Amino acid sequence: MDWDTINWYPGHMVKARKMVQENLKLVDLVVEILDARIPMSSRNPDIDSILGDKPRIMVLNKADLSDREKTGKWEEHFRDKLGIKCISIDSQHGRGINDLISAAQELADEINQKLAKKGRRPRPVRLMMVGIPNVGKSSLINRLAGKGSTRTGDRPGVTRGKQWIRVGKGLEMLDTPGILWPKFEDPEVGFKLAVTGAIKDEIINIEQVTIKLIHLLADLSPESLRARYKLDSIDDDPYETLKKIGVKRGCLVSGGNVDTLKAAIIVLNEFRGGKTGLFTLDELECSFRRN
Ligand SMILES: Nc1nc2c(ncn2[C@@H]2O[C@H](COP(=O)(O)OP(=O)(O)OP(=O)(O)O)[C@@H](O)[C@H]2O)c(=O)[nH]1
Ligand SMILES: [Mg+2]
How confident is the model at residue 266, as a pLDDT? Predict the structure, then answer.
C-alpha cells in the first residue's frame, strides 16, 4: 500500500493539533494515550515538542487486547527511558482506571497544597487527553466521569470539537479529537495504525492491509491463526491463506470464487476485537528508532 498517496491528515487534524497547543496552558496535566498493541507506532513523533515540560502521564489503553507481558515491558520502558509514569488500562472494562485516578489525585493535592500555602482556595485540577484517533480517549473519560459524558464510537474521528467534562469537584477533563501526523517516516507505522483502526477504513486498501496482517500473524503466532480459522496449515503466501479463510467462512461469489474483500473484512475485524489472540505488534527492540 502506498502511504504517500492517501490523505490521513485532513484539515480537521491540523485544527485539532492547534487546539491541543492552545489549551496546553489551561491544563495542569496531559494524559498521553497510546494503543497498548502498538505503543511505539501510536506515539506522535512530535508529542514531546508539542507538550514541552507540561506534567504528563502515559496510558497504554486497550490493554485487554495486547500481549500482557509485552505491555508490562513497554510500561517499564517508558517509565525508565522517559521518566514518565505509564499505566496500562482497559477502558472497556475499567482495569487500571484507579491507578490513573490516584496519579491525578496526587497531582491535584500537590497543586492545592501550593495554593493553600499562598493563602488561596483549592481549585479543580485540569487534565487534557491527547492521542491518535480511536485510541479510546473519550472512553477513558467516560470511565472516569460516568458513561455518556462524551461520545465514543468504533471508528476514528468521533470527537470533533473540544469538550470539558467534570469529575466530582476535584477534576476537570478536556476531551480532544484524535491527531495523527503529516508523514509516517516508516510505512510499517501506517500499516499498524490502519490495522488497529486509527486510520479511516474508507481510505485504506483493506485487502492489502489484511494480507499484510495475515503475513505478520503467520510469523508471530501461526497457531492462533490456524486455530481461529480451523486451517490445516498456514501457507507461505498470505493471499492463499486469506482465500482459505474465505472458503471456511462462506465468502463466495458466483462461480465458486472467494470474495477476498469480504474475507479480509472478517479477518481485520476479528483481529481488532481480539478474537484472533492478544498481540502487541511493536517490538521493544525496535524502539531505538524513536523515543
Ligand atoms: N477493547 C477495548 N476497546 C476500547 C478500549 N477503549 C476504547 N475502546 C473502544 O475503542 C473505540 C474508540 O473509542 P473512543 O473512546 O471513541 O476513542 P477516541 O480516542 O475518543 O476516538 P476519536 O474521538 O475518534 O479520536 C470504541 O469502540 C471503544 O469502545 C479498551 O480499553 N479496550
Ligand atoms: Mg473521542
Answer: 98
pLDDT digits (tens, 9 = 90+) for 235-260: 999 999 999 999 999 999 989 899 99
Domains of the chain: 11-175 (3.40.50.300), 205-289 (1.10.1580.10)
Mutational pocket test of ligand 1: of 37, 143, 152, the residue with most ligand atoms within 8 Å of the beta carbon? 152
Q: Which atom of ligand 1 is nearest to the CA of 65?
A: 1
Q: Which residue type is seen at 78? A: F
Whether 196 is in the pocket of ligand 1, judged by its Cβ within 6 Å, is no
Size of the chain, expressed as the number of residues it contains: 291
Mutate to test the pocket of ligand 1, among 134, 270, 276 (most ligand atoms within 8 A of CB): 134
Task: Give CA separation, 84 vs 1, 20, 173, in Å.
Answer: 35, 19, 20
CB 88 within 8 Å of CB 75: yes
Would you give the distance in Å from CA 273 to the centre of its chain?
13
Contact 193, 221 (CB under 8 A): no
pTM: 0.94
Handedness of CA 155, 161, 165, 171 (dihedral sign): positive
Q: CA angle 27-33-35, nearest 5°?
A: 175
| Pocket of ligand 1 contains residue 158 by CB under 6 Å | yes
For the beta carbon of residue 184, count every other beta carbon within 10 angstroms. 20
Rounded distance between C-alpha atoms, residue 64 and residue 91, angstroms: 9
Beta bridge partners of 31: 57, 129
Question: How far does the centroid of ligand 1 lie from the alpha carbon of residue 129, in Å?
Answer: 13
- Distance (Å, rounded) from C-alpha 222 to C-alpha 35? 23
Q: Which atom of ligand 1 lies closest to the CA of 135?
A: 19
